Amino acid sequence: MKVSPMKSFLIDRYKKGGALRLGEMSEPKLRENDVMVEIHAAGVNPVDSKIRDGEFKLILRYRLPLILGSDLAGVVTRVGSKVTRFSPGDEVYAHPGQDRIGTFAEFIAIDQANVALKPKNLTMEEAASIPLVALTAWQVLVERANLQKGQKVLIHAGSGGVGTIAIQLAKHLGAYVATTTSTANVALVKSLGADVVVDYKNDDFEKVLQGYDVVLNSLGKDTLEKSLGVLKPGGKLISISGPPDPDFAKENGSGWLLQQVMRLLSSGIRRKSKRRGINYSFLFMTANGRQLGKITSLIEAGDIRPVMDRVFPFEKTNEALAYVETGRAKGKVVVTVK
Fold first, then answer.
1. Where are the domains positioned within the chain?
2. Taking the CA of residue 113 as centre, how many other CA atoms within 13 Å lie in the half-sphere pointing to its CB?
């Protein structure tokens, strides 16, 4: 079969703050368990900037040039010989997995295990905003924290991509939800179901909140350490922004040296957590079509809705990434590819 060139935004080398190059790449090869998806829209995430900047080059060994992008919605055009779950014409959405990113492009090949049918009540742009942040929220709150009805959870940065979904998911699970945000976003996070909102411009969350079961941290070291004071003994501090812990290093198949580096990086917070009887862990979200299918059901039932900030045309992908990097987006930023 003749391989056509496709437009894509890529990097030729790692460079902090560097622009993505609009270029032509060959359509990806279809493996036997893959679906080929014509991408209609792609979500833009802080992780895209981090990969471009080279922050993950020790953990994720990419071959350059590399097409960026980790979220998509689109239509299946072809399927591999062993695909049983999808057919050409299916409308789908997915996070392709960290080893096969590349959604800032016209086509992508993804393992069927990482794909789910798109929620019927969402546009392509809305659907593309969901996978990475919803899977992150699901894996923190459902899988790692086992959040139960009546438990108390603090979700930092409630107006961000992960925060907006995590608040809604925690409320669906029956939890009592606190969140931190700026004055401008108090009404937004309350509309998503937050029971307590701490405006970080006026209050210190660690002085206002106590007796919590779970904290989802997506912010820096200061916030991470202050969060210990909010949790009760036996509570869980789960961070998606680091530092990585030895368990993550083992799961990731990192070598001995990298395991020791991660042990060292997380030793401070692990020691302080242990002293208080709190469990610290780092979570690096993984692709999972089965979990995404459960999220689809919640979206179609009206329990979770996407929160969109801005939609950019494909040729303005660099501007979209720069906007995400300001940290001011309410919910998600998306580019329309088709």
1. 5-130+306-336, 132-282
2. 9
Euclidean distance between CA atoms 285 and 282, whole angstroms = 10
Neighbours of 207 (CB within 10 A): 11
Level-2 CATH architecture, domain 5-130+306-336: Alpha-Beta Complex (3.90)
Give the C-alpha separation, 323 to 300, whole Å.
29
Q: Is 283 within 8 Å of 139 (Cβ atoms)?
A: yes
Whole-prediction pTM value?
Answer: 0.96
249, containing H or E segment: helix 246-251
Q: Write the single-letter amino acid at 133.
A: V
- With H, G, I as helix, E, B as strand and everything else as coil, classify residue 239: strand
At 3, the pLDDT band (50, 70, 90 cuts) reads low
Q: Quote the CA–CA distance of 63 and 327 in Å, as a whole number.
A: 28
Helix (H) or strand (E) holding 291: helix 289-300
